[in-house]
Amino acid sequence: MAVWDTISRSLDRFDASSFIDLMSIAVLIYLGLLLLRGTTAMSLLRGIMIVVVAAVILAQLLNLTVLDWLLRNSFPALLIAIPIVFQSEIRRFLERVGRTSRWPWPGRALFEGVVDTIADSSVQLAEKQHGAIIVVERETGLEEYLEAGVKLDAAVSVQLIKSIFYPNSALHDGAVIVREDRVVAASCTLPLSDRIDAGFHGTRHRAALGVTERTDAVAVVVSEETGQVSIAANGRIISNLDGPRVRGILRSLLLPSLEMDRPAGRRLPRLSR
After folding, report:
1. pLDDT for 177-204, tens place per residue?
2. Which of 81, 87, 120, 213 is 20 to 30 Å from 71 by CA-CA measure?
3. How far apart are CA 97 and CA 5, in angstroms?
4. 132-136 and 175-179 beta bridge pairing
5. Parts of the chain belonging to CATH 3.40.1700.10
6. Quick check: 178 and 118 in contact, CB under 8 A?
7. DSSP state at residue 272
8. Handedness of CA 207, 210, 211, 213 (dihedral sign)
9. Residues contacting residue 129 through CB under 8 Å, at least 6 positions apart
């Protein structure tokens, strides 16, 4: 009865302002989870929640006074620790919100232009055998990799990408990272894959595999030795692509809804390991 009386008194005090208050908190929590979805920070947050819930249950079941006191008095410290632990994700979110020209999460139309530009750039670089690696960021943030590169924040264009990877240019050694419709950094160092498959001994291919093994990014590689174009995603790679296939595979990865309109039997090939 005491619990029911408490609930009844709470409902009696519930009004429009209380509803707005609850909805505001729910929206903030939703935006926070949406921000962390698909990132390594989500795994970290999940681990923290599991540890905290397990500690609370343990303290209540076994009546652990010291642990219970520690949990009750640790929330002020968490308010300081959270911005420190998730600083890159918070900064990325605020940067996107600050771009008032569009909603912070990109849509299909935005990526269509990026796909065409990257496909044209890679084909033209391949014709001249200019080595290149272009990484397109998706849901998983690439902040840790672009921090080591040279910040650009320039609109994606064929001319820009070709000039970056022109032989002996200051920025040609390393990867270009594309976020939405912007080249955010160049000359970035990527992690190398531990796999050394026959035919993929090049550093660029291993870097493309490495970043796609750790994140959901898509990497386009142009071989300096052979002039072949390759695309890596989900730790897999497909090589020896021509212009239409580069465009088609990029569209299938960045714009998966386009594949729904493709006739049966004309699906794109699976990326091979």
Report:
1. 998 889 999 999 998 887 655 445 688 9
2. 87
3. 44
4. parallel
5. 108-261
6. yes
7. B
8. positive
9. 223, 224, 225, 226, 227
**What would the pLDDT profile of 25-67 be if each residue is shown by its tens digit?**
888 888 777 766 655 666 677 787 888 888 888 888 888 888 8
What residue has token string 């921000």? Answer: 35
Instruction: State the Cα–Cα distance between residues 162 and 27, nearest whole angstrom.
Output: 43
To 10 degrees, what angle do helices 108-127 and 243-254 make?
A: 150
247, two tokens: 């465009």
Give the model's pLDDT for residue 99. Answer: 45
Integer angstrom CA distances of residue 77 from 32, 46, 51, 56, 71 = 19, 18, 16, 17, 10
DSSP structural state of residue 224 = T
pLDDT value of position 158: 94
How is domain 108-261 classified at the CATH fold level? YojJ-like (1 (3.40.1700)
> How would you classify the pairing of strands 150-155 and 175-179?
unpaired
Under DSSP, the state recorded for 256 is G
d(CA 59, CA 230): 54
Q: pLDDT tens-digit profile of 88-122?
A: 667 666 655 554 444 444 455 566 788 999 999 99
**3-state SS, residue 42:** helix
